[in-house]
Design goal:
The chain is of the alpha/beta class. The chain folds into two domains: 2-135, Response regulator (Rossmann fold), CATH 3.40.50.2300; 144-206, Orthogonal Bundle (Arc Repressor Mutant, subunit A), CATH 1.10.10.10. It is built from eleven helices and six strands. It has helices at 11-21, 36-46, 62-72, 87-96, 108-119, 127-135, 144-147, 152-162, 167-174, 178-192, 197-206, and strands spanning 2-7, 27-33, 50-53, 77-82, 100-103, 124-125. The chain has a six-stranded parallel sheet with strand order 2-1-3-4-5-6, with helices on both faces. β5 (100-103), α5 and β6 (124-125) form a beta-alpha-beta unit. The radius of gyration is 18 Å and the shape is globular. The N and C termini lie far apart (41 Å).
């Protein structure tokens, strides 16, 4: 079971999320918080797998709460669920450690799949959030991949990873084995100096490494 904590200051939103998620056979709602401070406290006490985090809340906002949660409990996945899609919210949320960023108009089934993606170690971003990341692209004089250039195949794997694909899906798209994909991912993590798939995807988008090599 995926243990989910809901953090949102609006009662109606919390009720709606709980109503839907309770219909998911692989998910268990372990608690709900009305502000960021309470969310941090409940994560420490309840140890959820995923936190659905609102951005604007009293006492402590979602970005501050996410940062504290990731500092204390790095294994906890945070999915931002908000109404804001501008860069002033998207970029700080992802930099704080959120592995996903979705808007509240997301279809229920897509939300459930986003939660499952986080549990698989994948990232999940609303198209508007991806657009904001694209705008963040800027040249880097000496980035990790300049020191240790990615091979054409690593570039292909990174491009597929950035699309949110699983190892199995990447292997199928590139006609290689899952073991080979895991090896390439491990190598590109080392070259880009990142620790997980979300960081790799964010790095790729920011530095223009999202296009497949075609080789």
């Amino acid at each position: 079971m995926i243990r989910v904590l809901i953090a949102d200051d609006h009662h109606v939103v919390r009720r709606g999320l709980m109503f839907f998620l309770k219909t998911q056979k692989d998910m268990d709602i372990v608690g709900e918080a009305v502000n960021g401070r309470e969310a941090v406290e409940l994560v420490e006490r309840l140890k959820p797998d995923v936190v659905l985090m609102d951005l604007v809340m009293p006492e402590m906002d979602g970005i501050q709460a996410t940062k504290r949660i990731k500092e204390k409990f790095p294994e906890t996945h945070v999915l931002m669920l908000t109404s804001f899609s501008d860069r002033d919210h998207v970029i700080p949320a992802l930099n704080a450690g959120a592995a996903g960023y979705q808007l509240k108009d997301i279809e229920p089934d897509d939300l459930a799949e986003s939660i499952r993606k986080l549990m698989r170690g994948e990232h999940t971003l609303h198209p508007h959030a991806t657009t904001q990341l694209e705008k963040e692209k800027e040249p880097v004089e000496l980035s990790p991949h300049d020191k240790h250039p990615l091979t054409p195949r690593e570039q292909d794997v990174l491009s597929e990873l950035t699309k949110g694909k699983s190892n199995r899906e990447i292997a199928s798209a590139l006609f290689v084995t899952e073991k080979t994909v895991k090896t390439h991912i491990s190598n590109l993590f080392a070259k880009l100096q990142v620790q997980d798939r979300t960081q790799a995807a964010l790095y790729a988008v920011k530095h223009g490494l999202t296009e497949p090599s075609g080789q």
